[in-house]
Amino acid sequence: MMKAPVLSLPGPGGVQYPLAAFLKSWRWSPITAVLVILCAGPGAAQAIGFEPDGDNGGGIYLPRQFTGNGSPGSGPPMFILSGGGDDVPFGAESINDTSEYALGSYTWNVIFIQDNQQRNLDDREHPKVSTEDCATINCGTVHWSESMLTSRKQRVEDAISFWNDESLDRHHPAAQLEITVNFTNDVHNEGNPFTVDDIGDTGSSVGFIDALSSIDSDYSEFTSFSTATKQFNDDIRRSENNHWAVTTFVKPYYGRASASMNGPYTKGYEDDPTWTYAHELGHIFGARDEYGSASTSGRSGYLYGYNTNAATLPDGSDNPDSVSAVMKTHGNHFISDGSNTTI
Q1: Which residues contact 5 (CB under 8 A, 6 or more apart)?
Q2: What residues contact residue 187 under an 8 Å CB cut-off, 6+ apart?
Q3: DSSP string covering 244-276
Q4: Diameter of the chain by CA atoms?
Q5: What is the pLDDT of residues 229-257, one digit of tens each?
Q6: 324-330 mean pLDDT
Q7: Contact at 8 Å (CB) between 300 and 280?
Q8: Which residue, among 106, 146, 102, has the nearest Cα to 300 in the 3D structure?
Q9: 78: Cβ contacts below 8 Å, ≥ 6 apart
Q10: Residue-wise burial string across 317-343, b where 16 or more C-beta atoms lie within 10 A, e elsewhere
Q11: Strand 8-10 with 16-18, pairing
Q12: How many CA atoms lie within 13 A of 338 on its CB side?
């Protein structure tokens, strides 16, 4: 399969560098990047994933994806396929580039995990206890039930619908976000949670590698759960022919959900509502928290945008222009302008 044509620019020593990689290496504003592309001419625009839009007389360039043979497709903007027989975007072949922004096709891996450790059942977060402690407190194992799994899966589906619908309303058809869920337990464990030796307490990442190793023993070779998850995400996106992938590990007790900015994972808990799943996905796309001490001076995302809807200004005073939004207010499903500049 032939690779799509790649426009190059001269670099140090006369070496030619792909334009897409050149643009990615700098912090460009969207307008500047588009001007560079258009000044380079229609041929250059087509080479990096743009083509003239026939409905506008060829005067406006709209995003179109190129497939491996160079023919126009229907994917997100500025994506050139790597030519390796899958849909990994050009320049994002590394396992460190599996979730860059909220455009393109995503596989969202959701993994439910549990253990057989003795836990304090009178504590909503069910911390581990010793056998001796069980003589004086109410203790036992904390497992997922079928009804719990069903309801939590629906919350994940609802969070997916939120992000996909927002993209449908905001983005050109060739640049829309399309998230599909991979309930990994259904595929690899007949729908049952992965039971590992220990999943730790709230906030712990213990057991994540063990869960991945239940899918493929090769993941047991990793010492870092983050690196193992990156490799898993890359394997899944390639096998599913999607641009990106992210994984959520969900435990059967209460806790505070969290996410690694731009992936590769989020941590979830039994009590997480739909809003929490949607909020944590925002971090995967590059959006920052906007509540509490979050400052408008913070920057993130592929385009390194400012967190303009953050609750506080750089001097510590309240931001009078901050509004309720999915990255700020529990239960709110509005995407702020600040988040839109980062995702």
Answers
A1: 46, 47, 70
A2: none
A3: EEEEEEEESS----EE-TT-SEEEEETT--HHH
A4: 80
A5: 999 999 999 999 999 999 999 999 999 99
A6: 98
A7: no
A8: 102
A9: 20, 23, 48, 49, 50, 63
A10: eebeebeebbbbbeebbebbebbbbbb
A11: antiparallel
A12: 28
Cα separation, 276 vs 269, in Å, equals 10
The SS3 of residue 314 is: coil
* CB-based burial, 228-261: b 16+ in 10 Å, e otherwise: bbbbbbbbbbbebebbbbbbbbbbbbebebebbe
Structure tokens at 330: 């529990």
Q: What is the pLDDT of residues 28-80, one digit of tens each?
A: 444 444 344 334 444 333 333 322 333 333 322 222 222 222 233 333 334 45
Q: Is 202 exposed, middle or buried (0-12, 13-18, 19+ CB in 10 A)?
A: middle
Q: Please, what is the average pLDDT of the chain?
A: 81
Reading the block at residue 177, the tokens are: 């976000």
Distances (CA, A) of 235 to 21, 100, 156: 23, 16, 22
User: Tokens standing for 324?
Assistant: 């309720």
Q: Which residues lie closer than 8 Å to 129 by C-beta, 6 or more apart?
A: 118, 119, 120, 137, 139
87, 153, 248, 257, 266 from 183: Cα distances, Å: 21, 8, 10, 18, 14
At position 72, the amino acid (one-letter code) is P
CB neighbour list of residue 190: distance below 8 Å, 6 or more residues apart: none
C-alpha pair distances (Å), 44 with each of 35, 240, 290: 12, 30, 38
Q: Which amino acid is at 123?
A: D
Question: Looking at the chain, which runs of residues are DSSP E strands?
Answer: 8-10, 16-18, 50-52, 61-63, 104-115, 119-120, 139-140, 177-183, 194-196, 244-251, 258-259, 265-269, 299-300, 305-306
Structure tokens, 225: 């759960």
Enumerate the β-bridge partners of residue 17. 9
> What's the start-to-end Cα distance of the chain, in Å?
32
Give the other-Cβ count within 10 Å of 3's Cβ.
15
